UniProtKB/TrEMBL annotation:
It holds the Pfam family PH_9. Transmembrane segments: none annotated. It comes from Ceuthmochares aereus. This is PSD1 protein. Residues 1-71 form the PH domain. InterPro entries: PH-like_dom_sf, PH_9, PH_domain. The lineage of its organism: Eukaryota, Metazoa, Chordata, Craniata, Vertebrata.
Length: 150
């Protein structure tokens, strides 16, 4: 597609193809070897996109900027529904911007980090000793992937 130029109006088709970065995470694609300077962008709905920058500095700049903007403007997740507290389900992530100040947002992220770290430790320590199969295994795996990601 055409390169973005400041001041040029965006067409509806371009807006349909836009990727929302709320609750997203950009990371270096260290396991991707086909091209240099590639990074992953995992979105709130767990889609993964690959982007290639021209050089390592530009790649790190994109990663940093995306993560800073996502951290500054992503509203805290909604709590899980009461009926789904026995069965794991990822929390709903609001698409609206946060209403917290930057200081409150930092505190919110610090609290969330501590909570997720504790939940991950608890999850790993409470895994069943016998081999789990099928749906239960998938649910345990999904929860661990989510906690590691968060």
């Amino acid at each position: 597609q055409e390169e973005y130029k400041p001041g040029k109006a965006l067409v509806e088709e371009e807006l349909k193809n836009a990727i929302s970065i709320h609750h997203s995470l950009a990371t270096r694609a260290s396991d991707y070897s086909k091209r240099p300077n590639v990074f992953y962008l995992r979105t709130a709905d767990w889609r993964v996109f690959l982007f290639q920058a021209q050089n390592p500095e530009q790649m790190h700049s994109w990663i940093t900027r995306i993560n800073v903007v996502a951290a500054m403007f992503s509203a805290p997740p909604f709590p899980a529904a009461i009926g789904s507290q026995k069965k794991f389900s990822r929390p709903l992530l609001p698409s609206s911007c946060t209403r917290l100040s930057q200081e409150e947002q930092v505190k919110s992220h610090e609290t969330k980090f501590k909570t997720m770290s504790a939940e991950l430790l608890e999850h790993r320590s409470s895994l069943p000793e016998k081999k789990v199969k099928g749906k239960e295994y998938e649910e345990l795996k999904q929860k661990e992937e989510y906690l590691e990601f968060e």
